[in-house]
Amino acid sequence: MSVTIYVPGDSGALSLGAEKVAKAIAKEAADRGVDAKIVRNGSRGLYWLEPMVEVVTDAGRVAYGPVAAKDVASLFDAGFVTGGQHKLSLGDPEKLPYVAKQTRLTFARCGITDPLSLEDYEAHGGLTGLRNAVKMAPADIVKQVTESGLRGRGGAGFPTGIKWKTVLDTAADQKYIVCNADEGDSATFADRMIMEGDPFVLIEGMAIAGLATHATKGYVYIRSEYPHAIAVMTKAVEVARKAGVLGKSVLGSSQGFDIEIRSGAGAYVCGEETSLLNSLEGKRGVVRAKPPLPAIQGLFGKPTVINNVISLASVPIVMDKGAQYYKDFGMGRSRGTIPIQIAGNVKHGGLFEVAFGLTLGEIVDEIGGGTASGRPVKAVQVGGPLGAYFPRALFDTPFDYEAFAAKDGLIGHAGITVFDDSADMLKQARFAMEFCAIESCGKCTPCRIGSTRGVETLDKLAQNIEPEKQLALVTDLCNTMKFGSLCALGGFTPYPVMSAINHFPEDFRPATVAQAAE
Amino acid sequence: MVMQPASTELAARTAAVISEMKNLEGPLIPILHGVQEEFGYVPQESLPIIAEALNISRAEVHGVFTFYHDFRHNPAGRHVLKVCQAEACQSMGSDAIAAQIKQTLGIGFHETSKDGAVTLEPIYCLGLCACAPAAMLDGEVIGRLDADKIEEIAEEVRK
Ligand SMILES: Cc1cc2nc3c(=O)[nH]c(=O)nc-3n(C[C@H](O)[C@H](O)[C@H](O)COP(=O)(O)O)c2cc1C
Ligand code: SF4
Ligand code: FES
Ligand code: FES
């Protein structure tokens, strides 16, 4: 009898020892004469339980976690290959509350299937969206994506269908689909998880975008900090090409589409779409002024769809189940689901895909379970290094693009960092300025110089040198950066800085600062 | 047989990388990555060779080379340890972790140990933000860094 055992090959699981666990299981199985087939799946995203090992039994999948290599012998002793009880038993993974409470549309297969098995992908509903798209006129595909209400998940929330329509309507001999997999924001890992755990869904989404706009070439620009994602995507593209999903003819249709994987080179600003295009062209990653829009003059001057990984990976479900199905999830103008990434000092950190509309408090306290340290939550930063710090007083804010904007914040790529009461918000504000100074592309003076001045000013404040004057100066600098910057790096750095000052004034008050300095 | 002068060898190895990637659209960044993989850094002498092959100015190649944090101007140590210093890791004490690592290895950020064993660098997010504090040693990911794991890293690089 052969048993199938899943041990995630996801970077997060690997960072917690999954490789050693997989090796230990293989060795123990061989020693005991158990015929075990080990599948390296993606992660389901419950990182406090990783490495989470699953065994296929007659009664379905049974999970164990967090498993360390040293637990493996005792797992075999407990008969885990047939679902035996062990102190690490988690039962049916689908029934874990963190899993059961989610609505997994984009991440439907992540953590469940073998990432590089196209058969597995199809057996779990993959390629249905692309098969439907092949039979449709480009304008109808664009219409369906537009009607789904899908908005860009990279941060700006621009309607995906409308972007595609511009590219479709612009005539050119060559058009491109560029996938933005630069995922530089702290607290975000959804792109990484999907590329490592279900790469075909991204490939399928890009192929649909190609059919919808007459683009025949796609690039995935993946940050160099993600070597595992680059490796999986590279292999997946080869598999898809061999199977005729990519190549001269997409699934036997009259249009071709192929994908090339490119690695970034360690510049945060290259996540900004025009900087990314410059980087792909082999130039410095300097931000371009808009117009022209990339949809009209993008990569090498050609009409280009540039979308985030999750935007593109959400398209197959829209083309499979229909616009209305997707649109029925969510609230207001934020339709569908959003993979929220709960990170930092939090008990249950991980990926939680759900319809828009949960409140920040529900996400942090109920789903995240509060801090990992057990201390009170002081602040949460939403939306990465350009996102605002929210105090508990704003925990009733619903997760929705407009609701966050109304509170001087942003959803961004939906990453949330939890801080406990030991956080020093002056230090966090200083870091925001420092990060902007390190990563500025250098084009705008307010961003390049302002951020450096910001660091100096906050340092003076920390040393209690004319504190009132420094606070006024920082506020003034933030205004200049906000209105005088070409892109959101310089333009949004004021969000974390000013939210820290406004919501946590006690950390900036001369008296406390003076005490801390003594 | 006379030993080839180092510069001829360097030119040949650079040219080999270039010829492999030259036909890509926008080949410069892949070439710089390739050259760095070949030598462990991007030698100054490689830049004019790349410029000539791609028919662009040396200034342009230099500009691109210096823009990106990834490209090294000098050889790194045998091991490269990148320690995340971004917000999610900060919330889990990455400052203290970095201080401990610096003390254990006896070097600061952007420095290489005297024996050439290890180069230490800060990095801003590895996508392991739910497994913070995080680091990467020669491309291998490490989550939930603590004193024990730092000791393991130190042992590994001193091997
Ligand atoms: C400094 C900066 C960094 C950005 N980083 C990313 C990123 O890593 N990934 C991403 O998808 N979008 C990023 N964006 C947003 C992109 O410019 C762009 O809005 C997005 O790729 C469009 O795709 P979407 O409509 O699918 O969201 C960044 C923007 C700025 C200003
Ligand atoms: S705001 Fe900063 S990063 Fe953005 S274009 Fe200006 S200088 Fe470059
Ligand atoms: S380019 Fe100078 S302020 Fe924007
Ligand atoms: S912030 Fe450290 S891994 Fe993301």
TrEMBL record, chain A:
Cofactor: [4Fe-4S] cluster; FMN
Domain of life: Bacteria
UniProt entry keywords in alphabetical sequence: 4Fe-4S, Iron, Iron-sulfur, Metal-binding
NADH-ubiquinone oxidoreductase 51kDa subunit iron-sulphur binding domain location: 426-471
Matching SMART domains: NADH_4Fe-4S
CDD domains: TRX_Fd_FDH_beta
GO MF terms, alphabetically ordered: 4 iron, 4 sulfur cluster binding; FMN binding; metal ion binding; NADH dehydrogenase (ubiquinone) activity
Keyword Cytoplasm (UniProt): no
Short name of one Pfam family: NADH_4Fe-4S
Known function: NDH-1 shuttles electrons from NADH, via FMN and iron-sulfur (Fe-S) centers, to quinones in the respiratory chain. The immediate electron acceptor for the enzyme in this species is believed to be ubiquinone. Couples the redox reaction to proton translocation (for every two electrons transferred, four hydrogen ions are translocated across the cytoplasmic membrane), and thus conserves the redox energy in a proton gradient.
Family to which the UniProt record says this protein belongs: Belongs to the complex I 51 kDa subunit family.
UniProt protein name: Formate dehydrogenase iron-sulfur subunit
Automatic annotation (TrEMBL), chain B:
Family designation: Belongs to the complex I 24 kDa subunit family.
Keyword Iron-sulfur recorded: yes
Highest taxon of source: Bacteria
Species the sequence originates in: Aminobacter aganoensis
Necessary cofactors: [2Fe-2S] cluster
Keyword list, A-Z: 2Fe-2S, Iron, Iron-sulfur, Metal-binding
PANTHER family: BIFURCATING [FEFE] HYDROGENASE GAMMA SUBUNIT, NADH-QUINONE OXIDOREDUCTASE, E SUBUNIT
Coiled-coil boundaries: none
InterPro entries associated with the record: NADP_DH_HndA-like, NuoE-like, NuoE_N, Thioredoxin-like_sf
Pfam families from the UniProt entry: 2Fe-2S_thioredx (PF01257)
Molecular function terms, GO-annotated: 2 iron, 2 sulfur cluster binding; metal ion binding; oxidoreductase activity
Protein name: Formate dehydrogenase subunit gamma
Co-factor binding details: Binds 1 [2Fe-2S] cluster.
Binding site for [2Fe-2S] cluster: C84, C89, C125, C129
